[in-house]
Amino acid sequence: MLVVALSLIAIGGYIAPERITEALGITTSRSFETQTNILDEADEDADSERPPDVETIPTSGFDVVIVVESEQFFTSEGAEAIRSVVEHLESQDYVDNILWMDKIPSLNIFGLSEPLLPNKEAAPERFERSKQNAREHPLINGQFLSDDGNTLLLMVRFNYFFVDDESIFTSGIREAAEQQLVNHPDVKMNFFVTGRVPFRLTAQSSQQDNQLKYQSIAYGMIILMSMVLFRGIVAVGIVAAAPFLGVFWTLGFVRYLNLQMNPFIDVVLPILVALVAFTDGVHLMVQIRHERAMGLKGLDAAREGVRKVGLACFLTSLTTAVGFGSLALANHELVRDFGYCCVFGVGLAFLSVVLAIPLACSTWLGQRIHIGYGKGYVDRNISRIGGIVDLVLRYPRRMSAIGIVLSLVLFSISLTLRPDDRLGDLLPRYTEPAIANQKMDVAMGGLSQASITIEWQTGDDKQAKNVELLQILQDIDDLLKQEQLIGHPISIYNLLEALPGSGPAATRISMLDLLPPSLKRSYYTPENRVAQIKFRVQDLGIAAYGPVFQRIQDGTQAIIADHPGFTVRLSGAPIWRWENIYQIVVDLVTSLGTAAIIIFLILACVYRSLRIGIISILPNLFPLCVAGTYLALTGQALEIVTVCAFTCCLGIAVDDTIHFLTRYVEEKRETGDESEAIRKAFTSVGTALIMTTLVLVCGFMTVMLSEAREHRIFASMGAITVASALFGDLVFLPAILKTFSPEKRVKDQT
């Protein structure tokens, strides 16, 4: 009845979750934009309150950015072609407007209108002069045109009322541009689409494609490995039913929360739930098959299997839920949601194991599950593998010392990891927005923009304030130009510097009113006493830009200290990532430490032994140190995905330790001999430990086929952690149990 009830609730989540949540008065709406606000390259602080009659010229926050590459922009044929392409795109109903180089007002102080791109009838000398003028225009060079004049940006805003297909934001608008270019066969141009909307849509599409594809591969691999290890199709089917139900229930429940667009929930959560359920399911099935082989009937064998393994399964689920649930302490919404859903998933996975497997084994389906027991590859070779335990028990102190020293060395290497974050890592490298972003980094200094905002108090002498402001802007501009990773800073200081005349810009403050209002108001709002310097940032990650931003922050504070009444602050998406990603990683590391402490306390309380609780620390931290060393040696960094993997892998790795310790405690209670208890514990659970490790590693390796870099990192860390956890449980755990056993201490004292 419970299986049916949970299944019906999950089915409701697949069919119409909003009806049920609305009937219960629960609001769960969460837009994809809200979940992925880290993708926004627009600076919300950049658009301070403007006078309503002045239209400014923004350089960020557009729906789509079209990157155009050509060496013919400043030729008669090229100018005609690019104008034709822009006119054709603007004629489309779904395009609201396009901002590009030709719409930027010139810096002609006499107010004469002069297009930056001449008409096609102009002489070649005129085009060459126009190219030079464009490269000297501070708002064009580095903002709409590259330094070499071969890369041009078209900033597109869409009219969403006429958008009936999401592909218009990506391939649709690019194909429209390419079709118009066909009318100019002598002109060669390449178009690439990127920006806020294409970035999100591509990330969403990649997640959806990976979700079904790699889940199917992982589940197929689990079934295949199970058939090889169990040597019985019925046992495989029963064990596979538990992860199937766990994933089915979990995804159904998640749909009530409207969290499907989370990249971790979409791809990683189902595989993790399946693997966790399969791990406990294998242990339970191995025990039930053993009881059937010993002569017990179906119901009695199922009952005995649950009695002997049920506590360990519950503890593994509890500790895994603690590991996942610790993610809820993070500040990042995606991570918190992932943690919450993992707790749901682990709980449902436990129910699927203790309900489905005993239920099936108690019916006619379980009549022949013991056929093939003891004939599997692992079963037949467990005695050979047991020689490792005998070797460990022969030299327990030496092996314990090796484990402790090795863990400390690996831990010290792991401490070299530093926080990092790159937007490009959210997309497969071959996708068009990712390629366009790379081109933007090279040609324009990056797609994302950051800004430095200067504010001042009201003063009696406005002219003196303006002169002082220009001096501050000049000093900050000089500071920014010292940083090689900062691209094309622009402010009213740069606009004034580009005007005809000689002498420093501060001496030409009287010419400020001669600037075109749309240009001036983009970086200077005297009514609000705000001025800004904007600059481009490449997608190199916060590890590369962290020292740069710190130097800029320190430098601007030093500059502003000499100007009482002025304040300065850094803002923009790159600055937000620099300030917050580190804190997010720190939060995740804190949650990892919290999870480790709670797991230790749980084990100490359950086994009623502080000694066992302390002993369990090394075999559980050792695999994390191995994974951290792998990241350090392969040049990786501490990203959100890697710390999430650390936390989740702790929850999975502790499963083997719990099953071993649970059986060890039982055998120790019966035999009273430390070495014999360790050997029997290995003989009892060793088969299941090795089998589950093989399946888990294969399951994680299937995710390595994913196109998303985050998924590959998560999978590689999972495989390494689970494999090293088995090594720790078979080598270091028996050695430490033997070294620090009570009877060992009594003998030493004697």
Tell me briefly what this model is:
The chain is an alpha+beta fold and 750 residues long. The chain has helices at 2-15, 17-23, 32-35, 76-90, 124-136, 171-181, 196-230, 233-257, 263-293, 298-325, 333-361, 377-394, 396-414, 432-444, 462-481, 492-497, 517-523, 542-561, 573-606, 610-615, 617-633, 640-671, 674-703, 709-739, 742-749, and strands at 64-69, 95-99, 151-158, 190-194, 448-456, 486-490, 524-525, 530-537, 566-572.
Give the arrangement of secondary structure elements.
Layout: H1 2-15, H2 17-23, H3 32-35, E1 64-69, H4 76-90, E2 95-99, H5 124-136, E3 151-158, H6 171-181, E4 190-194, H7 196-230, H8 233-257, H9 263-293, H10 298-325, H11 333-361, H12 377-394, H13 396-414, H14 432-444, E5 448-456, H15 462-481, E6 486-490, H16 492-497, H17 517-523, E7 524-525, E8 530-537, H18 542-561, E9 566-572, H19 573-606, H20 610-615, H21 617-633, H22 640-671, H23 674-703, H24 709-739, H25 742-749
